[in-house]
Amino acid sequence: MDCYTANWNPLGDSAFYRKYELYSMDWDLKEELRDCLVAAAPYGGPIALLRNPWRKEKAASVRPVLDIYSASGMPLASLLWKSGPVVSLGWSAEEELLCVQEDGAVLVYGLHGDFRRHFSMGNEVLQNRVLDARIFHTEFGSGVAILTGAHRFTLSANVGDLKLRRMPEVPGLQSAPSCWTALCQDRVAHILLAVGPDLYLLDHAACSAVTPPGLAPGVSSFLQMAVSFTYRHLALFTDTGYIWMGTASLKEKLCEFNCNIRAPPKQMVWCSRPRSKERAVVVAWERRLMVVGDAPESIQFVLDEDSYLVPELDGVRIFSRSTHEFLHEVPAASEEIFKIASMAPGALLLEAQKEYEKESQKADEYLREIQELGQLTQAVQQCIEAAGHEHQPDMQKSLLRAASFGKCFLDRFPPDSFVHMCQDLRVLNAVRDYHIGIPLTYSQYKQLTIQVLLDRLVLRRLYPLAIQICEYLRLPEVQGVSRILAHWACYKVQQKDVSDEDVARAINQKLGDTPGVSYSDIAARAYGCGRTELAIKLLEYEPRSGEQVPLLLKMKRSKLALSKAIESGDTDLVFTVLLHLKNELNRGDFFMTLRNQPMALSLYRQFCKHQELETLKDLYNQDDNHQELGSFHIRASYAAEERIEGRVAALQTAADAFYKAKNEFAAKATEDQMRLLRLQRRLEDELGGQFLDLSLHDTVTTLILGGHNKRAEQLARDFRIPDKRLWWLKLTALADLEDWEELEKFSKSKKSPIGYLPFVEICMKQHNKYEAKKYASRVGPEQKVKALLLVGDVAQAADVAIEHRNEAELSLVLSHCTGATDGATADKIQRARAQAQKK
């Protein structure tokens, strides 16, 4: 135990800090870190070095080199810098490298040195140049803050959604501030800067002077400031050698420490872990590292070479040319177990397990002691928790073996925490490997989440490891393996040294029908890389036409898109392609394309019927479809033309089209309609009233109703209306007029071709039984019974039915008989039936 705690350093009475090696760096640095611009991403992220930046002592002809390494020093990318002078480097939350140039341009590079995009911080920055810059992180994303040559600040809180804010001017600021930083308070980004003994806080509206509470007197300048990883705390280094620590709002002081060194430090960062009450700041000079907090003494380390500090969620990473180390506060569980002479339950359980392996009876004594205190559950939990905070696998195994040993003596200890810790440590040990180079701690891993870790492995193109982790943790395919395979495929299409056929085949063999994988997304990436043919081949594997067609249109493969849309049977998709083709092709080519696709042509005709009638006419003309062209002109004559001459001309065109289509009937009917229109116009001119657009029958009826019987008869002769139809029209019209005298004359004008039963029916419809009886007597024998029943003469109808000896007529009359009034008639019919049956 005492050997294990040899590297523990106490800070006051309540906290220990330890520093252990993460990696032995094997990178081949040709220059010292002090001669490079350095940026290291949090959460065990990559390191960027811009060698040979723009310095007066360097030859102007020597171009700088931008190198990107993993945290273990494995090279990831190296590129010759061909752009302008760089002022600052920083990593975004998505592990993109932001390079802030002197002209205000920010160039964004990927982890492997691939250029992503660039943006500008505005014209004012361009004109006044950049003096200094900071990359900071907020809950909205990664931000950039700029100090210009005019001593003004400009910032954007989220480079993913760039919105520039020009901060207020600091009164009397004639030179660069001695130190400054970006703060995030209440979801808003601020700038805190020091000018001599004064501190100013800039927000979007005003510049406010602020004073740290409880600051030691005699301060004439602030030399360095540091904000904590969570932006909740602030540290200020003064020219008197004092370090003030408090809240970032500058409303509360935590502590103050006199380090007795007045030289400005190279770096100052916070070192604290989540849920810990201890607060400490790490200060680095050229060859000295100091950890200070709320204690009269500090912890000091000697730095053998140039070092760089990287603040983390639960500690500080320190890397140099030869080593990469991690400094942090010893977690409570580890402290309880490993501190000298500890009698904590976890410490006793660990000893018990070791004695058990030695087959010593002391194991039983330790266990009995823990059980007597009722602390076995607590002991197991302490060992599990401490295992998560250990970096060395051997110590992890020792603690987990102790936890497993203790679980054997508990009846109802839930196994989830033990199982999950074993899984988490296996994942962490895999990514901490030197060749992977992501030295995450357990706290960082939990904060980052497994999904983000998988994204970072994918970003490093470590697809096999990412898939193994997904399978080991049994993640759902859509969130795990499928998503990683999709990323792998998107990377695969960028390998231009492999043929399109081989890439498409390899992707399909690997992906198959994996759920959650979209071939259209992969094809879109291939098209973005300039590999159109590969994109088309990949789209063949996409089962959803709705995903195929938009990309094919984007690639200007419209005819193929039309074929795919038709195959899908989705009319909306076909219409989308047709409208795209219409705008893309000239009219002739568009129509020729439609002729080869009958379904598309039919749908386009339907569209044109409602939206573009002239285009529909052109389609019929091109296809020599005279039948449909005739129908089109008939509809057009009624829809568009108001003048009779125009309508007749349109109908004449329709008739000519019907003749060409060899449809004699339609042609004759159209000519008859033209004659009727002309006649109706003449009738309107001579008689007044409304005749246009009436049918032939309605025209005849209107003439009769107007008393123009001769005109009606002449119209019937001209259009060869049959006599039966004319009699029906005249009968109905005279009955509607209730001109019974004229109706009687009409009935006697000649023998009725429709008989006289219609006269009875029409009169009864007009509720005139008197007139109906006149015609009932003239009805022929075969309809006599029905006519008599219509006028209500049941007795006479019975006599006629008996005379005719017709069973159907007898039954009809009997159905009209009512009990009280027609009883005798019903008896008469029954007697007639009985006599007929005897015979």
TrEMBL record:
Keywords carried by this UniProt record: Coiled coil, Endosome, Lysosome, Membrane, Protein transport, Transport
GO terms, molecular function: actin binding
Subunit structure: Core component of at least two putative endosomal tethering complexes, the homotypic fusion and vacuole protein sorting (HOPS) complex and the class C core vacuole/endosome tethering (CORVET) complex. Their common core is composed of the class C Vps proteins VPS11, VPS16, VPS18 and VPS33A, which in HOPS further associates with VPS39 and VPS41 and in CORVET with VPS8 and TGFBRAP1. Interacts with RAB5C. Interacts with STX17, MON1B. Associates with adapter protein complex 3 (AP-3) and clathrin:AP-3 complexes.
Family as reported in the entry's similarity comment: Belongs to the VPS16 family.
Function: Plays a role in vesicle-mediated protein trafficking to lysosomal compartments including the endocytic membrane transport and autophagic pathways. Believed to act as a core component of the putative HOPS and CORVET endosomal tethering complexes.
Major subcellular site: membrane
Pfam families listed in its UniProt record: Vps16_C, Vps16_N
Topology of the protein relative to the lipid bilayer: Peripheral membrane protein
GO CC annotation: CORVET complex; early endosome; HOPS complex; late endosome membrane; lysosomal membrane; recycling endosome
Organism encoding this protein: Macaca nemestrina (Pig-tailed macaque)
Domain named Vps16 C-terminal: residues: 517-835
Compartment(s) where it occurs, according to its Swiss-Prot or TrEMBL record: Late endosome membrane; Lysosome membrane
One of the protein's GO biological processes: endosomal transport
Domain Vps16 N-terminal: 4-420
Record's protein name: Vacuolar protein sorting-associated protein 16 homolog
Keyword Coiled coil part of the UniProt annotation: yes
Coiled-coil ranges per UniProt: 349-376
Alphabetical list of InterPro entries matching this protein: VPS16, Vps16_C, Vps16_C_sf, Vps16_N
